[in-house]
Design goal:
The protein is mainly alpha-helical and 316 residues long. The chain is built from 10 helices and 3 strands; from the N terminus they run E-H-H-E-H-H-H-E-H-H-H-H-H. The termini are far apart.
Length: 316
């Protein structure tokens, strides 16, 4: 007879890496996590402290860095813990909390990237009205909308998931509490959860992505046919190139993960794809924006010079 004991905790199976490689992988992801915190934290500080970076573009970039810091913090520490202990246990409530923040921050980031594409569209295609259209209150409202949609999207999944019955097996074939591996453990009717995952989550992911594609299609057309200055073209393509790279790093694995059949897919493959956009992409975003953006590089150099000057004066 099947065990119908209600599950009060789950066991995260992690990445199932060979024992000989666990400590090496642990060090690698620990360094990546530290680099994520330092890189994105530096961008947040620079955007807040440098007056000439108080523009819509860098306002959204600061929001993106905030999300990357918290997003990696939701997943990576638990991943690192799994390399050090044999059995990684997470309570039911802890799992729901992690699930909430995982989808809250992930959804907000996708929508935020769509808003950043709109900002570039207005700046390049309608520069004379840019300061009017992208005024401070409008930018704040857009950011609030992005965070709010992410919040309610995550809340929807957590509420419906918390009402499912989990009994018997409690081993999650993942390093994080994600919907797909959790649904495999549910012993109740998961039709509503699958519908929400396939319809709503797909819309939240694909909607901004399609908006970004159309925005850049219009931008590229505008640049090729209406902009004659070579320097203006280079500057526009450089700025857009950074954003498109970040979009690709997030959306390629996300779409690959959620657009494929929801159930019956390889859990190990899902875990590896999740690892890309939750642990690797956040550390690459600040590198992409600092290496390709002269204003950010100059602001960071200025901040370092001031920091070292203050340190030298204090030592004296």
């Amino acid at each position: 007879m099947e065990n119908q004991t209600k599950v009060g905790q789950f066991i995260l199976l992690g990445l199932n890496i060979d024992y000989e490689l666990q400590y090496i992988i642990f060090v690698i992801f620990l360094l990546l996590y530290m680099a994520t915190l330092i890189g994105n934290g530096a961008i947040v500080i620079v955007v807040l402290t440098e007056p000439h970076l108080h523009t819509p573009m860098y306002f959204f970039l600061g929001n993106l860095s905030y999300i990357d810091i918290f997003y990696s913090t939701v997943t990576v520490p638990k991943l690192l813990q799994g390399f050090l202990i044999d059995v990684q246990i997470i309570s039911f409530n802890g799992c729901m909390v992690q699930l909430f923040f995982f989808y809250f921050l992930g959804s907000s980031e996708g929508i935020l990237l769509g808003l950043m594409a709109y900002d570039r569209y207005v700046a390049i295609c309608n520069p004379l009205r840019y300061t009017v259209i992208m005024r401070k209150m409008v930018c704040v409202l857009m950011a609030v909308v992005a965070w709010s949609i992410g919040f309610f999207h995550a809340l929807m999944h957590v509420v419906t998931m918390a009402h499912l019955s989990f009994c018997g097996q409690n081993q999650i074939e993942h390093f994080v509490c994600d919907i797909k591996p959790l649904l495999k453990l549910a012993c109740g009717n998961t039709h509503l959860n699958l519908m929400l995952l396939n319809v709503v989550t797909s819309f939240v992911a694909i909607g901004p992505f399609i908006f970004i594609l159309f925005s850049y299609l219009y931008i590229i057309t505008f640049l090729l046919f209406k902009v004659q200055s070579q320097s203006s073209l280079q500057k526009a393509f450089s700025t857009c190139g950074s954003h498109l790279t970040v979009v690709s790093l997030l959306y390629v694995p996300v779409l690959f993960n959620y657009m494929l059949p929801t159930m019956g897919t390889s859990s190990k493959r899902d875990a590896i794809i999740t690892l890309i956009y939750s642990a690797i992409t956040p550390v690459l975003n600040p590198l992409i924006y600092t290496l390709r953006n002269e204003q950010v590089k100059m602001a960071m150099k200025k901040m370092l010079v001031i920091r070292f000057s203050f340190t030298d004066e204090w030592k004296c």
